[in-house]
Input
Amino acid sequence: MTSVIVDYGSGNLHSVEKSFRKMANKLGADNILLTSCPERVANAERIILPGVGAFAACRDSLSRSGLFEAVEHATIRRGVPFLGICVGMQLLATVGLEHGHTPGFDWIPGQVEPVQPNDRKLKIPHMGWNELGPSLHHPLFHGLPPVTDVYFVHSYHFVPKDPAAAIAWTDYSGPIVAAVARDNICGVQFHPEKSQIAGLGIVGNFLSWRP
Output
């Protein structure tokens, strides 16, 4: 089984690839492939879409390279498991509001808005370790302890139209959706590749997930 990490120039790929290879070796299962080839992405058996930077730039890069069509073919038409990370999760939304209105994938209806904590003294971007909660029932979080901290770096957050699409939250002087899911699609706002033991557990759970 081949799990593909989509390389569309978004950055931070080395640490993502390293964490997925580590868990794949531990599980003795998936072949991890980092690629910018649309054909390989379209034929993958799992899709990982990282994302660092601006929503619009990431969306444009995927469209210009032909990779969006490949990701859509694998995820929507073939139904393979999909994991979006950070901006890779935000792209699941209907629209992003970063520097204007940019259409997203619209796979999970909602929009990506600026993080605006109630305590105006808190810094933006939201950066550092925060606790996931209140309950983690999705298979992505199987085996994690009740109190789990993960690492965030972001200035915008996903607000789903249906709150039930959120499978994990965190608090930054106000609620922030930390993860979303629908059918074979899931996404995390935090960085599992930077979240140490908890992050590796989430990576392993995704590689074992059979939606």
The radius of gyration is 16 Å.
